[in-house]
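Assess this one:
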Amino acid sequence: MTENVTLLDDLDILVERGIYRDRETLIKDAVRSLLRSKPELRRQLAIELYKLNRISLSRAAEIGGIDVESFKEILRETGITRVVSPVGETIRDEVERLMHLRETE
């Protein structure tokens, strides 16, 4: 009789044996190793996170393992337009956020 066991279930042996503290730590280490071994996958992740406005340009470049100018070039090559907020708007938004935090204290 065959059991429907997944690779993640099999990897729990590493947690049970104390090699990893818990499943989350094991998965984080596995993902880090995957991204380290596949630079193109790392770049694709950085591009997608940037497109979703979940990370900044500099953070995306860092995740992609390249400098900011090279990341900008990749964005241009893939047809992704960068949206740069005017500095005044960014500062105003941050001041409003801080004022709101102060009011809630």
